[in-house]
Amino acid sequence: MSSLARGGGFRRPVNESGMSLLVVLILLIVVSLLGVAVMRSSGMQESMSANLRDRALAFQAAEAALRVAQEDVLGNPAIEDLQYGKTLAELNVSCAATGICDATTIPAPAAVWRTAPDGRSTYRIEYVGDAYAPKTGKSCSVDSMDYECRRPMFRITARGRSPGISEVFLQANVVSR
Question: Measuring CA to CA, which residue among 133, 76, 125, 79 is closest to residue 102?
Fold first, then answer.
């Protein structure tokens, strides 16, 4: 008669006491922690790339506003009269109307921000005094400090915003033609 016929069944080995279950559970925990760490890392990389994109869009918007403001300065016929020693007040160039403010007056007027054509960026133009440069079509030398050779200089501050939360400021000095 076999041992099964006697009702004994199969015998379990004596030295197996659930050790493999414990090892598998520890490995499962380690793999789970590793998976969570990888998910957090990829989420952080995604947010960093989104921030970089937002900053690049804001920078491009500020740069576009800077170009628009430079064209406002270089293409403004009233500004050419500044070369002959006239002031913005004498030329009836009002800060509120034109957005060109006189930073040489004390106290300085409140800066007027103008909106660029893209709608996301703004800029302001401030007259900061005269620079010396040769005049086109006249006989002024570069070294001359002649009154005729003075040119108005402007500080342009451009602010660009992205659709996200980024904001970039750029500044440039422009000497009128």
Answer: 125
Domain range list for the chain: 37-175
CB 50 within 8 A of CB 164: yes
Q: Cis peptide leading into 163, omega within 30 of 0? A: no
Q: Please check whether residue 83 is in contact with residue 151, taking contact to mean a CB–CB distance below 8 angstroms.
A: yes
How confident is the model at residue 170, as a pLDDT? 93
Map tokens 């500020």 to a residue: 62
- Mean pLDDT, the chain, whole residue set: 77
d(CA 98, CA 151): 19
CA 125/CA 113 separation, integer angstroms: 8
Tokens 């070369």, residue located: 83
Specify the pTM.
Answer: 0.64
Q: Which two tokens stand for residue 151?
A: 């040119």
29's CB contacts (< 8 A; 6+ apart) are none
Dist. CA 64–CA 163, nearest whole Å: 15
pLDDT of 87 over the 60 cut: yes
**Cα–Cα distance measured from residue 96 to residue 63, given in angstroms and rounded to the nearest whole number:** 23
